[in-house]
Automatic annotation (TrEMBL):
<dbReference type="Pfam" id="PF07080">
    <property type="entry name" value="DUF1348"/>
</dbReference>
<protein>
    <submittedName>
        <fullName>Nuclear transport factor 2 family protein</fullName>
    </submittedName>
</protein>
<dbReference type="InterPro" id="IPR032710">
    <property type="entry name" value="NTF2-like_dom_sf"/>
</dbReference>
<dbReference type="InterPro" id="IPR009783">
    <property type="entry name" value="DUF1348"/>
</dbReference>
Length: 147
C-alpha cells in the first residue's frame, strides 16, 4: 500500500523547505514518537550520533527511549540549505536527565525526501553541552514557527 503523501513535496523552494523545517520542529516538540515517525518512509535510514536505524518501528522505539531519558525536551530548528529533494538544518535543544542535570544539544541534520514528501534519510551529528538551569534559552515555544 502506498504511503500517504506528506506535503510540501520536493523539489523544494525556500518557502516549502522552511515549511518542512517548521513542521519537523513542531512534531519533535510534541515528544510523540508515533506522530514523529509518520514523517519518515517505512524503510527510512537514520544515523543519530552513533546509532544507525532502519524503518519506522526502529525510529519509534528510539524516540520513545530518547524522550524517557531527555526530559522536558525543547527544540529549535533552523533551515540551513536546500536543493531538490534535500534539506540541511542546524538545531539546538535543551533537556535534563533524571538527576536534574541540564544539557543543550547542538547539531546538524541532513535530510533526503522521497517524491511523496516523506523523509527517507536523516543523518544527525549532535554534541551535548552541560548547562545550569538558569542558562536555559529554550524555555517556551517559539513565537514564530521555525524561529
Amino acid at each position: 500500500m502506498p504511503e500517504t503523501p506528506r506535503p510540501p513535496l520536493p523539489p523544494f523552494t525556500a518557502e516549502t523547505a522552511l515549511e518542512k523545517v517548521c513542521a519537523a520542529e513542531a512534531a519533535w516538540n510534541s515528544r510523540d514518537p508515533e506522530r514523529v515517525a509518520l514523517a519518515y518512509t517505512e524503510d527510512s535510514e537514520w544515523r543519530d550520533r552513533d546509532v544507525f536505524l532502519t524503518g519506522r518501528a526502529e525510529i519509534t522505539a528510539f524516540l520513545r527511549d530518547k524522550w524517557r531519558r531527555e526530559l522536558d525536551y525543547r527544540l529549535r530548528k533552523e533551515l540551513w540549505a536546500y536543493t531538490g529533494d534535500r534539506i540541511a538544518v542546524r538545531f539546538a535543544y535543551e533537556w535534563h536527565d533524571a538527576a536534574g542535570r541540564w544539557f543543550r544539544s547542538y547539531g546538524n541534520e541532513n535530510w533526503e525526501f522521497a517524491a511523496n514528501g516523506l523523509m527517507r534519510r536523516r543523518f544527525a551529528s549532535i554534541d551535548d553541552v552541560p548547562i545550569r538551569q538558569h542558562e536555559r534559552r529554550l524555555t517556551a515555544p517559539p513565537s514564530v514557527p521555525g524561529a
